[in-house]
Structures are given as C-alpha cells and as structure tokens.
Amino acid sequence: MADNIFDIEIITPDRVFYNGETDFLEFNTQNGEIGVYKNHIPLTTVLAPGIVTIHNGDEEKIAAIHSGFAEILGDKVTFLAELAEWPDEIDIDRAQAAKERAEQRLSNHTAEIDVKRAEFALRKALIRIDVAHHV
After folding, report:
1. Could you report the per-residue pLDDT of 27-63, keeping only the tens digit for each?
2. Does the pTM exceed 0.85?
3. Are residues 15 and 56 in the same domain?
4. Residues 33 and 98 both lie in one domain
5. Which residues form the ATP synthase epsilon subunit C-terminal domain (predicted)?
C-alpha cells in the first residue's frame, strides 16, 4: 500500500455510499473548497452542497454531496451526508426541471416564497446537472 493512501467513507441516512481509498480528496465546506492529503490536520467541518472528487493516481471518481459533516483524521475522512449521488444516479431531466422551477421562484418571488430554500434548490439542481455530465 502506498504511503500517501488514506481511507474515505461517505455515509448517508440510507446507505454507505462509498468506502474506499484515495490519495487526494477535494470537496466543498461552508468556508470554501478544501483539498485533503494523508495526515491532514484533524478537522470537523460542515459540508456545503457541491462536488466531491476522489483521486487515486490518474483515476478520479466524482459525486454530488448535498450538505452534512466531514471529519478529517490523519488516515481517514468520513462524510456524514444528507444525500450523495454518483453521476449515473442523477436524472438529468428532473434536475433541469428543478433548476427551472427554482429560477422561476427566484425571479418572480413574492413574500410567500422562501428565497433561501429556492436558492438551495437551485444550487442542488446545478450541482446535479454538473455531476451528471461526468458519466
């Protein structure tokens, strides 16, 4: 086993989404993008909706993560995510429709519209569309 390899586990409420190894990991936190190598300083952070990229040499796996927490330890990163999706699990037509609904709510919003919720729905749809193009 190479010296720079560490474990990653992504857990959602309904499944262990991914359990494997990586030599470099990229994902979004509420404070911005982060890259993790083995022996990163211990850290617990809030995940922001975005793309997680799991690198293994020249190979990479890409998934959509929609909020949760990440725990970074020297030789393991654990995500507790609300939702995680591989590109082939995303229904691109449904994501496009959700994007259009959210954009419509934001452009025509009235007092009854929850703007933060509509913005979150738009971001989620855009992430899904982006990840789905990596099939």
Report:
1. 999 999 999 999 999 999 999 999 999 999 999 999 9
2. no
3. yes
4. no
5. 88-132
